Amino acid sequence: MQQPATVHAPSALWRAAPFVFVLLWSGGFVFGKLGLAYSEPMTMLALRYGLAVAVLVPLAMIRRPLWPVAAGHWAALVLTGILIQGVYFGLAYLAMKRGMNAGTTAIIMSLQPALVAALTPLLGGRRSGPLLWLGLAVGMAGVVLAIWSEGSLGPSPWGASLLALGALAGIGTATLFEKWHGFRTDPVASGLVQYVVGFVLLAPLAALTERMAIDWQPELVMALAYLVLANSLVSIGLYLAMVQRGDATQISSYMYLVPPLAMILAWALLGERLHPLALAGLALSAFGVYVVSYQTR
């Protein structure tokens, strides 16, 4: 029976993977918010997934990745695609389109480590010790401080907040499911399947619920280029590979760095003011990640 491929990477490059992922993932909030000014959320995501498939198909033809054979493995890829591309991105984009700013969205998504840490023992993972919870608490304090410094903790519509919480449930469930089923898949094969799933899921939804109007401005083209190449291809591939190779709680803990870095990128790219408290929050988040990483070694 053909076995799914195991992805190996040089140790030095692999150690840098979480930080590359965090940087690229942080930019996704900024460019996602930028693109939503020129397109509706489901339409934008369907376009994003369609472009990602167009890039991955020739790459798969050249690279010829090892595809899964078992029906259960295919089902796992499809379900992961639904959870990440449909539930997580779909609900997060809807929340931002309904008025939730990128900082508030990022801080809600950063609750993922606590969710994963609390539920991993139920799947037979390592127990969540006091030091791990201390690291999670410190990291969360840093995130709250960073977002609070920008005034992003103001009231958001309940609908947008519930959508963001649904997105959090999607990415948290996907992380736990990836660890539970234990399949290892070539990133190109996995990405291609998931983006096809995302496109098939959201394109009809966009046609049914939106006008599918797109204002083709340079800012939208730039946002789509980033979201397709950096966010959809590189960062999602890194995320899936890290989940397959590492402890679920340790991998998720890096998400604590996303909100502060998203604020820094928004300052650099969009001219938003960066408050000194945000830098203090970034330092706290980095320390929290270190504590969690030390505990889960």
Automatic annotation (TrEMBL):
Pfam family, one: EamA
Transmembrane regions: 12-32, 44-62, 74-96, 102-124, 131-148, 160-177, 189-208, 220-241, 253-270, 276-294
Membrane topology: Multi-pass membrane protein
InterPro entries, per the entry: AA-Vitamin_Transporters, EamA_dom, EmrE-like
GO cellular component entries: membrane
Domain EamA: 20-147, 161-293
Cellular compartments annotated: Membrane
UniProt superkingdom: Bacteria
Molecular function terms from GO: ATP binding
Family that this chain belongs to: Belongs to the EamA transporter family.
Record protein name field: Peptide ABC transporter ATP-binding protein
